[in-house]
Prior knowledge:
The structure is a homodimer. The first copy, chain A, is built from 30 helices and 14 strands. The first copy, chain A, is mainly alpha-helical.
Amino acid sequence: MKEDSSQFAETFTTEDMEGGITNENGRDPESNSLNQPLLKRNRTLSSSPLALIGAKVSHIESLDYEINENDLFKHDWRSRSSVQVLQYIFLKWTLAFLVGLLTGLIATLINLAVENIAGFKLLAVAGFIEEKRYLMGFIYFTGANFLLTLVAAVLCVCFAPTAAGPGIPEIKAYLNGVDTPNMFGATTLIVKIIGSIGAVSAGLDLGKEGPLVHIGTCIASLLGQGGPDNYHLRWRWLRYFNNDRDRRDLITCGASSGVCAAFRAPVGGVLFALEEVATWWRSALLWRTFFSTAVVAVVLRAFIEYCNSGKCGLFGKGGLIMFDVSNVTVKYHVMDIIPVVIIGLIGGVLGSLYNYLLHKVLRLYSLINQKGKIYKLLLSLSVSLFTSVCLYGLPFLATCSPCDPSLPESACPTTGQTGNFKQFNCPDGYYNDLASLLFSTNDDAVRNIFSTNTPTEFHPLSLVIFFTLYCILGLFTFGIAVPSGLFLPIILMGSAYGRLLGSAMGSYTNIDQGLYAVLGAASLMAGSMRMTVSLCVIFLELTNNLLLLPITMIVLLIAKTAGDSFNPSIYEIILHLKGLPFLEAHPEPWMRNLTVGELADIKPAVVTLHGLEKVARIVDVLRNTTHNGFPVVDDDMVPPAGLAIGAMALKGLVLRSHLVQILKKKWFLQERRRTEEWEVREKFTWVDLAERCGRIEEVAVTKDEMEMYVDLHPLTNTTPYTVVESMSVAKAMVLFREVGLRHLLIVPQYQAAGVSPVVGILTRQDLRAHNILTAFPHLEKSKRREKGN
Amino acid sequence: MKEDSSQFAETFTTEDMEGGITNENGRDPESNSLNQPLLKRNRTLSSSPLALIGAKVSHIESLDYEINENDLFKHDWRSRSSVQVLQYIFLKWTLAFLVGLLTGLIATLINLAVENIAGFKLLAVAGFIEEKRYLMGFIYFTGANFLLTLVAAVLCVCFAPTAAGPGIPEIKAYLNGVDTPNMFGATTLIVKIIGSIGAVSAGLDLGKEGPLVHIGTCIASLLGQGGPDNYHLRWRWLRYFNNDRDRRDLITCGASSGVCAAFRAPVGGVLFALEEVATWWRSALLWRTFFSTAVVAVVLRAFIEYCNSGKCGLFGKGGLIMFDVSNVTVKYHVMDIIPVVIIGLIGGVLGSLYNYLLHKVLRLYSLINQKGKIYKLLLSLSVSLFTSVCLYGLPFLATCSPCDPSLPESACPTTGQTGNFKQFNCPDGYYNDLASLLFSTNDDAVRNIFSTNTPTEFHPLSLVIFFTLYCILGLFTFGIAVPSGLFLPIILMGSAYGRLLGSAMGSYTNIDQGLYAVLGAASLMAGSMRMTVSLCVIFLELTNNLLLLPITMIVLLIAKTAGDSFNPSIYEIILHLKGLPFLEAHPEPWMRNLTVGELADIKPAVVTLHGLEKVARIVDVLRNTTHNGFPVVDDDMVPPAGLAIGAMALKGLVLRSHLVQILKKKWFLQERRRTEEWEVREKFTWVDLAERCGRIEEVAVTKDEMEMYVDLHPLTNTTPYTVVESMSVAKAMVLFREVGLRHLLIVPQYQAAGVSPVVGILTRQDLRAHNILTAFPHLEKSKRREKGN
Lengths: 789, 789
């Protein structure tokens, strides 16, 4: 797998080099073609990364998960009473509870809305069809879908472009330390909720699973900061949460709550967050996310019990388990290993093919979307039209099948919005198998295709039509400007070929065809998303058949292995495509051949500050650089015994945001002296410093003030992580990622008078394989040579 | 929770100080009492740790999970062809497969043996009882149990003391980086298998779960090194695995396979390894452990299918799911929240009480065990006698209940080795409810107490007797010298009070009493072991009732929270008791007030070597120190431009084992010169260096050789992780643990001529809270003051 991800990176790089050095903006619309990357960067190690956020290119910032151990923090920590500590712990759990509660409520709301809107739409159309008014039915169906898509798309395009798509890649990047702008705001949340309802009710081939994950994280982020950006609560105790570390934990809770709400899979949700989304993990966090998902499960369960009595319109049929297949006993022979392996292989190959094609389609869509809002809208609406035409028209191609007389009359044929054997255009006593799959909500389609003990329900031809249609829709729907999840389209595609294989095996197999559909869906998920344990648990919780577990595990492992030998997972592809500076878990092998010293050499010299610094110098540095952290270096007047006066010492690292706050609050000294602890405490609190606000352009400093001094010591992080310049990039990257850093200082290997105690500073961008290869093209060659061996 | 673990550490420390400085051996048998620690250390930061391994005090070593980037490694890695890389990957997966396969086979073997031995024993005794020959039955029962215990105990005491107990704490320590001697050998494996069969068949109150985890890891370790210590295969490709990193991964696979084999819970096994056992985790490893457990599941499943046809004697009844309760539909009201909360609270309180009392009992047992082998044997045998007397005698106290006439005659009463309604001493048509619980194997007892739709089967009095008995047995059985697991005793205890509460709730509840028993068991597990997600999945896989999941989650969360407010988990307690230098996940808050420089100051000055060093000096250093790594410091003759000649540079770290190998292979130079790459490659390979063998005492160096030189550069790890001396201990510890280090170098903060480029070296022992507090008693005080606030 490592081999492949580097292959992937390589393709990008070569293209980059062909494109040459591009403009600052990073885009070069004229030369854009399908073979070129959407984002280009200068051929140096850049510290101002750009990424594609909702079809726009934005600057993005890194997050800081390191504890900033400066004097203020230490004092604050020492002076925190046990009551405050308890308050903090209590608040942490309260927020986790609220995240679960709200995610559960919103998920119920979305389900309720979707089931009712889509249900009444389908009922009305079924009415027209029953009266043989086919054209009227078509107009009503297409029109309703068109309007629903329009609502979703207009909201996404005009108010919150970041609400389009699933949002999972951005969440993954956030938890890796990349702050994508406007991702977790209140507007995004609202647009995502309404847009998701619209898009799913419109019958588009997309799910509400990805969006629910995003909704969960939005709720978490908003709760953590006490409300929307402009109106948030400024309670003192809430502001303890206004730091990157606590927000990260809360967002992890949100992500797992979202998955739990989507699939009603509490354990699967935790594992999804652990396996796919999170970069760092602590056992305390495992426990908190588990609490959140438990709350979601209880909320969902309560509403389902409530709605079972029919108080929620068309919503509420079916229990907590979405696609229950527990009514078949799983028995298998040695022979059954063959179809299981085949399903796994098909899943892997198709999954990676899907990833490959989706990548191409997304590039194409990006070009269309860049042209303007109206193009984005038109694209979405044409996909909606095409979908409606297919869903309505194709069932007419299928022949009517007679109902199995052993079934009760109420079960076959059905005309309601749910039910397995749809009557559609067929006479009484007959059903249209393709309509059972196409003329229903996506959830119901999955339920129908997973249905067990119905070996003859679906004609192979209908399954082929269904599979082909959903392959096309799955590729062309995902990139449009509405909130869309990937899970359901993949489940639909996968279940089709799984069930087809089941029919083909016929009497050679002991496994029910419904279970084949489940296995097919699992295999395509693994082939495309490359998860194992979490998918396994999610499928277990979706289908409630524990005896299927060993086969599911084997299918998932085969599909993932097969997929990994072609390309990376779909989320990684999207991350690359968007240009988000995600830091991979494993260093590339060639990184062992490069030292951080060599990396520092090609960067501009590091800008250091003195512990007692002139205001003018600080202003100058802030205005003329874009760095977010500056090493503080001192020549102590009174060095430790045995050292010459003027011996240089590394005092730590001071952050740009803290410098801006000093300037804003005008904490200046007339003379060049060290301050006392109480002086800084009068001006700043730890909570102030955690905020990341203020830009140097907003600060006005008078000429007199320019000549004054600042004592940086109390605000300096005295314990930044460091590496010696002879350290290999591979190991520096491991440190950077494992500890969750934003800045990593490089200290000299040689010990001598006159050597600066810090020779460089590394950031996320410097450690990314792609950037290093751009700056050191010879590594690219050595990499190729090694591969050629 | 953090609060508590520090409380725990504190108790230890104060006692240590009262005891004063003790002898080198670390024990002071005269003054041993229940209030004093079993292991004592000098009041300095010690680098020669002692731990209690199977009632003996042994020296233990740290493991090295860092990649040793020296010239040889780099060359080896560059010259590895893609075929070799593929071979390595293939081998990794093959080994994971073999671990799963062998664990599955051995687990089946153990199950088969236990079910048959215990089954025939119970059948014979039931025969005597049927003939009213009660005394004969008693003698037979007690005698058989005595003999079985004797076999298990003699094996453990004489051949493999490390096979006693569950082994999980030691595995946890291993994955944290602590190498416990003789833990994973072939003798241990064999004794563990036979001992476990003996102890479980003897009806002792212990499970085979912990031992199976240990068996899995033993298999993994033996496979990784190619066989037992003395006879292992020396195939070249297998020796690529002879390093701490790959062995760690394999042992993680073994641990999860073991849990999977114990509970037939593949996903639970992976999660158990992740949540409880492992310290570091990578997603690639998640996937490999998942593969191992999938293999185990398939093997178990195959054997169960095979044995269902009656070819395995008394083994093979029942399917893959051990304690199936899926036949009840879970319905619950808001009212049911009350018993759920109560069960959780009881579980937490009882669990922590159990931990507390078990701790006391284990201390007492340690004192007994120290007296000699015969005492260990006697202790085990007396526990066996007591258990037999109770199991046989107590059912006579219960009154006979008439069978429910709705049950078929074959179901009530039963006389076979399994079955729920045991006849025992009752007339036909009556059953003895206490005998259903006591007069059967532990697995069957759990199955019976979990049995659903049998609300009136057990009298509350019988449940009280059962609960009391198993509380006593659970406390006094665990520490005896046989392989013993903690899971089953806790499940038995917990299910008893769960079911009792269920009866007490009577008609106020909708939840089946069998489910109350399940919840009780889960709550006590969480209260004692403090796991959440993995327990939840294990219980799901054990009982196959997905609808129970939300309540299980809540019970687990409450029980864990309640337990954590009293004391740490049982595994942590055992780790402390054994003195294993486990590195906690979180630094203590007071560690932020201490710098690594202060820590280095109280240690003896660091011993450095030069890049070109005299043999005499190396021999001297190796003989007179016990350090396992030495920084290499050079005054380069040709320093980089701008530096004075003689500028000192930190070249890296060389390991003791590599120095010993240099001396053994006599790779000496006549003159003081740098060697070429081919010279070192002629003598050493990367695979040689990975072996951790050879002691300085075995090396003979002549007087002439003493005057020769060694070029250490090619064997030096050029990229050791470093921290600046002003770094706080808290952050250094995070780095140490996250990256998995054995040595962490401290570099100076000041940059001046004459300063050594390395001022100290930190190891695992230096970063342990207990050791630091011993050396810095004032931190202890500040800690107390803060707590008092």
